[in-house]
Amino acid sequence: MADGGKTVVKQTAAKKAPAAKKVASKAVASKPPKTESRTALVRRARRINRELADVYPYAHPELDFDNPFQLVVATVLSAQTTDLRVNQTTPALFAKYPTPEDLAAANPEEVEEILRPCGFFRAKTKSVMGLSKALVENYGGEVPGRLEELVKLPGVGRKTAFVVLGNAFGRPGITVDTHFQRLVRRWQWTEQTDPDKIEAEIAALFPKSDWTDLSHHVIWHGRRICHARKPACGACPIAPLCPAYGEGETDPEKAKKLLKYEKGGFPGQRLRPPQAYLDAGGKPAPPLGAG
């Protein structure tokens, strides 16, 4: 969610996130059948999204940014690292190079030194300087608001493009990151493994207006509760709708200890989170080197 005036983001009314619904530690009786009709799948998928919207009413992009340029750079930097590490790194980057013109003309070695904590800093320096140069030369220093133009920028693929379109321009898109891929397959919304095919199949289950918020809900759930190695099934509010219930810890007390970020009482990934997140009990992340 943007903190500046140029970005277009839906403002969510601040409210307390409801407590996670009680989940039985034994098998869930209402688990979806192995053979599910298309109509039943659509209904279940949309119900899961509604349930997650109640659990995460304050869900937002977990990268700090004030404008489309900052968001596209931050998203490129987030590859193979955490949003938290990017958020701890970009303040120094944008303080020194606030515009595409500044970053395009920067000394690569100085940029590399700033980006070192993000990992793969040489490749990422090349990408963000390259996309800055492309913005200056081809788009007058402005980030384009069209998918076809965004994916032409160095380091920008469909996933990054949809993050920017959905959160900086208010144009719906589905962000198929590793969390999204894992959960939609775990929920049996799709059997596809190719991100583009996953995107197409999931898009067909929901109205276009839901795509951006759906992405936030799924990704947030994957980071906080439905983890890759040990899902917190016993603390999951959508367990009755999940075909994979039981793959993780089903004991409610043990599952509660697996919760991450605000669900576990810990800081989130943004240094500057939206007010709605803070009002819901979320804690901002510390700056780089703090604590």
From TrEMBL:
InterPro entries: DNA_glycosylase (IPR011257), Endonuclease-III-like_CS2 (IPR004036), Endonuclease3_FeS-loop_motif (IPR003651), Endouclease-III_FeS-bd_BS (IPR004035), HhH-GPD_domain (IPR003265), HhH_base_excis_C (IPR023170), HhH_motif (IPR000445), Nth (IPR005759)
Extent of Low complexity compositional bias: 1-32
UniProt family annotation: Belongs to the Nth/MutY family.
The enzyme's E.C. designation: 4.2.99.18
Cofactor remark: Binds 1 [4Fe-4S] cluster.
Protein name as it appears in the record: Endonuclease III
Keywords: 4Fe-4S, DNA damage, DNA repair, DNA-binding, Endonuclease, Glycosidase, Hydrolase, Iron, Iron-sulfur, Lyase, Metal-binding, Nuclease
Region Disordered: start-end pairs: 1-37, 264-291
GO molecular function, one term: class I DNA-(apurinic or apyrimidinic site) endonuclease activity
Domain HhH-GPD: 77-224
Reaction(s) catalysed (UniProt annotation): 2'-deoxyribonucleotide-(2'-deoxyribose 5'-phosphate)-2'-deoxyribonucleotide-DNA = a 3'-end 2'-deoxyribonucleotide-(2,3-dehydro-2,3-deoxyribose 5'-phosphate)-DNA + a 5'-end 5'-phospho-2'-deoxyribonucleoside-DNA + H(+)
Record flagged with keyword Nucleotide-binding: no
Cofactor(s) recorded in Swiss-Prot or TrEMBL: [4Fe-4S] cluster
Domain of life the protein comes from: Bacteria
Biological function: DNA repair enzyme that has both DNA N-glycosylase activity and AP-lyase activity. The DNA N-glycosylase activity releases various damaged pyrimidines from DNA by cleaving the N-glycosidic bond, leaving an AP (apurinic/apyrimidinic) site. The AP-lyase activity cleaves the phosphodiester bond 3' to the AP site by a beta-elimination, leaving a 3'-terminal unsaturated sugar and a product with a terminal 5'-phosphate.
Enzyme class: lyase
Keyword Iron-sulfur in annotation: yes
Binding site for [4Fe-4S] cluster: 226, 233, 236, 242
Protein species of origin: Streptomyces lanatus
